Amino acid sequence: MKNEISLPLGGRSGATRDSQSPMGPDLEGQDVVISVVMPCLDEEETIGACVEKAFEGIRRAGLPGEVIVSDNGSTDRSVEIARELGARVINQPNRGYGNAYRAGFDAARGKYIVMGDSDDTYDFTEIDKFIEKLREGNEYVLGSRFNGQILPGAMPWLHQYIGNPVLTGILNFMFGLRSSDAHSGFRAFSKDAYRRMRLQTTGMEFASELVINAARAKLKVAEVPIVYYPRGGESKLRSFRDGWRHLRFMLMYSPDHLFLVPGAVLFLVGLIGMLALLPGPKVINGHVIDYHFMFVFSSLAIVGFQVLLTGFYAKAYAFTHRFAPDDRMIQLFYRHFSLEEWLIGGFLVFLLGLGIDVAIVLQWAQNGFKNLFAVREALLALTLTVIGLQLVFSSFLLSILNITSKPVELPTEVD
């Protein structure tokens, strides 16, 4: 059974609260300290209970506050109910979980922002636990369902035992975090922390971005255990689609794991394998490994090197566009990067491959242009020339990505 509260004005009963007094009679006239933000898309069954619980939570916290409902295009009575109960309704026509929340955050007037879904799965009367953590000096507080309690029927088996734990584990591994519930929808942070997180995503991946950017902004983070209740109304979640969006976002935000590690592994395996077969075939467990495998190793080396360079493009872009301003690897890279030196290096690798090709042609000429078997040497030459050219052109792209754009001052007209 849900944690229902008994208030004079019930959201489900249709009673109204003065829409001009969102902070309640005992807190009117004071500056807003707490802003409770909840997104809404056709939640008329639950929005009333959520708004009332949010006001009760504000009262329990003992600080003046407001409730903001960020409507994402509801066609039912959700907006009407929220306004009747005293919530500020913000209209966000652009669909998406992240869009709705960011519109609400931008409209928030409080020093502390509390976020939670409007499907009655979170108990907003427990806002005081979050505010207490924030007043202790924490900047970001996460409500953990897995450290608290998940009531029967509140979360599908697939989400509870596979989806959420796996995605949380991947996020912790990739970004060095220790979150127990990275995709909880019940959180709180200061308005200053919100600005520092520089949130940009528009969909369900917004939940992951919050955790990642809180870590990147070096916010002081705390967790509080919460109870997760069965939702009311129709769920907007799509398990595999939304799970993929979270995973996709985490990979794109981690070029080290998406590009650098796989690229380095492919390149090293390809290069070592090719050099091992260069002198001649190898016999492994009675099987002859010959030049046919050199084609595979050559491909791995070329593809791996390109993936590796793509990782540097991604890190350079994130660094120069301030998505990852504290990336030490790219800072060290650009500190020692020289376009001319990289061009010379790439050109030398290219010449080395070209030199091997020239040697093969000369050997062919010495044999009277008769049949010549120099596949191993030719594959090494091919690999070196391609990698050399990749390095040359990548040098220019990395230099372009390092250009810091500055606003251009237009000349003023003089009469």
The CATH superfamily of the largest domain is identified as: Spore Coat Polysaccharide Biosynthesis Protein SpsA, Chain A
Query: And the CATH topology of the largest domain?
Result: Spore Coat Polysaccharide Biosynthesis Protein SpsA, Chain A
**First CA to last CA: what distance?**
77 Å
CATH architecture of the largest domain: Alpha-Beta Complex
Q: Could you name the ranges where pLDDT drops below 50 across 5 or more consecutive residues?
A: 3-22, 405-415
The fraction of residues assigned to DSSP E strands is 5-15%
Instruction: Label the overall shape.
Output: elongated
* Spatial extent as radius of gyration: 29 Å
Give the rounded overall mean pLDDT. 84
Question: Would you list the SSEs in sequence order as H and E?
Answer: EHEHEHEHEHEHHEHHEEHHHH
Query: What characterizes the major β-sheet?
Result: 7 strands, mixed
In terms of quaternary structure, the protein is single chain
Write the layout of secondary structure elements.
Blueprint lengths: L33 E7 L6 H15 L3 E7 L6 H7 L3 E4 L5 H11 L4 E4 L11 H9 L4 E11 L6 H19 L11 E4 H7 L8 H11 L4 E8 L10 H14 L2 H23 L4 E3 L2 E3 L1 H30 L7 H9 L2 H28 L8 H27 L14
Parallel strand pairs: 1-2, 1-4, 2-3, 5-7
Antiparallel strand pairs: 4-6, 5-6, 8-9
Helix pairs in contact: 1-4, 5-8, 9-10, 10-13, 12-13
Describe what this molecule looks like in 3D.
The chain is of the alpha/beta class and 415 residues long. The protein folds into two domains: 34-252, Spore Coat Polysaccharide Biosynthesis Protein SpsA, Chain A, CATH 3.90.550.10; 255-401, no CATH class. The protein is built from 13 helices and nine strands. It has helices at 47-61, 78-84, 97-107, 127-135, 157-175, 191-197, 206-216, 239-252, 255-277, 291-320, 328-336, 339-366, 375-401, and strands at residues 34-40, 65-71, 88-91, 112-115, 140-150, 187-190, 221-228, 282-284, 287-289. The protein has a seven-stranded mixed β-sheet, sandwiched between helices. Helix 2 links the parallel strand 2 (65-71) and strand 3 (88-91). Helix 1 crosses helix 4 (127-135), helix 5 (157-175) runs parallel beside helix 8 and helix 9 (255-277) packs antiparallel against helix 10. The chain is elongated and about 95 Å long. It starts with 33 loop residues before the first strand and ends in a 14-residue tail after the last helix. Mean pLDDT is 84; it is low at 3-22 and 405-415.
